[in-house]
Design goal:
By secondary structure, the chain is mainly alpha-helical. Among the domains are: about 10-105, Fumarase/aspartase (N-terminal domain) (Fumarase C, Chain B, domain 1, Orthogonal Bundle), CATH 1.10.275; about 110-150 and about 165-200 and about 230-355, Fumarase/aspartase (Central domain) (Fumarase C, Chain A, domain 2, Up-down Bundle), CATH 1.20.200.10. It contains 18 helices and 4 strands. A two-stranded antiparallel sheet has the order 1-2. Strands 3-4 form a two-stranded antiparallel ribbon.
Amino acid sequence: MLTKNINNKTSSVQGGKIYGDFTSSFHSDIRMYSEDIDVSIAYSKMLKKIGILSSQESELIKNSLEEIRKEIKDNIFDWDYTLEDIHLNIENSMYKKIGEVAGKLHYGRSRNDQVATDSRLYFLRNVDLIIPSIIKFLEVLIKLSEKNIEILLPGYTHLQKGQPILISHNLMSYFSMISRDLSRFQNTRFNLDNMPLGSGAFAGVTIPLDRDLLADELGFSRVSSNSIDSVSSRDHITDLLYSCSSIMINLSRISEELIIWNTEEFNFINIPDEFTTGSSIMPQKRNPDYFELIRGKSGIPIGHLVSLFTSLKGLTFTYNRDLQEDRKGAMDSIEIVSQSLEVLSNLFSNLTFNQKIMLDSAHNSNILATDFADYLANKKMPYREAYEIVKNISSSLEGKYIHQISLNELRKFSKLFEEDVLDISLGNSIERRNSFGGTSTDSVKNQIKEAKIFLLKIKNEK
């Protein structure tokens, strides 16, 4: 049994004997110790302004908190595990350093609005690190697309060759996908940027808090407008978890595609050795473990999102202890996203393509079938009739591909085939797909141009 220390005013918060460490949030909340200290320093400044603290008392509190911050950072802080969270540990240490003045800091403040503010500030700062990491990855994708602008390969549906595309077009599809994740994190940041401090336990407080000052000190652009909602809602964390889940799903899909392209059966890409690992028994193996781990880790934020949704759906207003479990999953998820983006940015910066193998793979297939159907449709034949004719041609081929058969053979299926049908080729197929967003060289160059404008606008908005 853990028993409160009767000589410790901080321990009175726990209300008596508590069993074990089941109620402790210590191991997750220790990650946001610096935010907790920042919030307390800002609060002490505000209490001084409204006359609750003297200048000397406010300075004592600030100095003791900065000393505690350094002790934690240097790993010499004396954590008391009989106190169930970091907030009480920090307050307890302040008592030891400055005595009764430490007890004045909590006037008008509840752990409910304190931890809600701590976590918002922690996640805001981490999202501000993730956003530049996403931008960096997007920039790497643009550079890789430009470097390999004209390399072609077979495009796939259902893992079967469908139509020829440019690898730069495929890479820019990654850009389009991840740029939407960037927008999601920007929206998440907006929703996090709403300060709950000053809400008290849930009903507000009786002292004239200057919440605008607190927001300015902590870097929030807005203050929450309802004290009940401030301490009881966690949709800002579900927003964050959804953003983490979405980008990890997309990074997993990218990783899966490159895992397939890295197989001997495809051999489209060369992964740098430092991003592969060997086998413990098969000396010839180089395994794409980094891609596989990103694919594997993608399930973690999804699980945390579903877990928090499930916890929130049955909660009454206002605060319930269930909400203590809101943070750890999101903390783990943003770490996974940050690590994954760092890995992929460095990996893609050194990724190369086996151009001849990709070209041969496209050439040794019937991926020009659609172009032959389009040829007949351009001769005013109904497309469904053209489709049927080319389908029959494809099924009748023996030992060769549709672009390898002669004009005489083609005319057995339709007299509309003329000499110019022999102009159909992989390059011709790609360049004719010049529609907005298509795979032609000019279209991809335009996508790259628009992508650069998009990123420049993002940077200028900061």
